[in-house]
Amino acid sequence: MSVTSSPPPKPLVAQAASDLASRARWKPLEIVFWLAVLGSIFLLPSKHLILTEIAILGLFALSLDLILGYAGIVSLGHAAFFGFGAYAAGILAKYGIIKEPVLAMLASGLLAAALGFVTSFLVLRGSDLTRLMVTLGVALVLREIANQLDITGGADGLQGIEMQPIFGHFGFDIFGKTAYVYSLVTLFVLFLIARRIVNSPFGLSLRSVRGNPLRASAIGIHVNGRLVAVYTIAAAYAGIAGALLTQSTQFASLSVLDFERSADVMLMLIIGGTGYLYGGMIGAVLFKLVQDYLANVNPQYWQFWLGLGLVMMIMFGRVYGAVIATVIFAICMLTNLPFMQQIVFTIVVVAVLGLARAEILRFTSAITERAVAAQRQLKARFTRKTEGS
Amino acid sequence: MAPVLETKGLVKQFGGIVATNDVTLSVEKGARHALIGPNGAGKTTIINMLTGVLRPTAGTILLEGRDITGLEPHKRVQLGIARTFQINQLFADLTPIETIGLAVSERMQLGRQWWRLVGSKSIVIDESVEILDRFNLADVMDERTATLPYGKQRLLEIALAIACRPNVLLLDEPAAGVPEAERHGILDAVAALPRDVTVLLIEHDMDIVFSFADRISVLVNGALFVDGPPEEVAQDPRVKAVYLGEEAHDA
Question: Which string of b and e fits B160-187 if b means at least 16 CB within 10 Å?
């Protein structure tokens, strides 16, 4: 080890640059994902209404991922910003303040960002528990304000919103195609910006703050400043998602500020996984499809199955948990048991699985290991072949 | 020589317990100053006050004559105080190149840039690689920090503080917990620190202290007990009593 610093060898520098850039590189699966999204416009014209809702929820969950997945801020009141943006867009349109939808959407995002900035100072202090309480509190307060005010329409919701064509050109149609394309374009642009942000020096500093705030401040990072910044950005994203919902449905009700909305978006993100930006969107697709399917098959009790799925996913991991829950559900459906017996059957199965959890986990991790090894082998063979040819 | 870092009448109380009792300490520019004392003497408490993690109950802290007692931790880093931790405080999910690159870009005031991709400034990369190379971390620079061997993590702990390019470096037991085989790597790194960096070392191991320090302060029960050059401190009967007493107790 030398005291004087000599310039490092060139190959090392090149390797370091490549290592640093690796996270920002586009992966093949990402391209597949967005091609599938693009394809949905043309291939699923009859599903545009629910797909629009999924795109909006995906954007909302992406917003939560920015604070939870990248900065480690837990929130049970993220609907505050979604709802604020939703009402802002509704009021802007209804009273003709900003008629053009894109401008109105951006304005709603800015208003939500302002609210995010102001309330961010509440989440700086304290543990995860205090953050949960504070964010929950802010959302409850806003909901009650929206309930009492005249301008928001109170419990009746904001009715009589008429949307002007986008850029004065593309009118909203009854099949929801314009709304869907509009939501997707917004989602994609905001995704690109988020992708840029999380792969920037600012994004890297957020990950360090999430990982170890004590050390982050010990290398000169103003931890609170970074948290305020990302909370404000995430609030803008959530506000834009809310604005899109109002604009595509031409209606805003108190449900945009419901506690359930905050809880659902948290579930979506956790189902899809945090900290890689796609989790929220994938989670929104799964959540909405499962919800839609279950509500059709089993309208009264669909939440029972959703709950079972979540518990299994926590107990046995995301993939195996979902498989186990699906098997239990399938057995109940195929045997056509009355609901009370379905409950008893499910509880017995869950209890048995719970007691055998250690054995099951050993079994599932063995499968995972084998799958990973097989994948590696396949990859090795594939690269050897391409090298040989 | 002018003092770089000074404390005047520093006191820290936790409830009824006095962790630091009227400590007036002066660290000379370029010094290799060691702060020693038995377990629970309050050494880490002093480091925490110097870096702004803890607020002193009374007293002042001066950096090059400037009062920094009330300054936030990140501002002190920008003024040139960096530290390492007794127990590794690293970013488990980041790689060493990301970790060091982060510290270097923060020091260059580039850390708020959200529109530029990480790794697009060659000035940051060059310096980061140079530091990793100097601390023998270049071979593992793209591995997750959490998976590195303990000795490598310990080196990264020091390298990360150096990446802040400090005037004053506070080392909190740099060799703590390092297996014997990897120990010399850490000690070499400490010995090779640039001479213009002032070092305040907290250490239990007397071999390290006496081979490294040109000045030693002994802390007992939160108060400064003895302060002087190594040979003087080594001869001091009171210090011998404290350490012999402790050693006898340990045995």
Answer: bbbbbbbbbbbbbbbbbebeeebeebbb
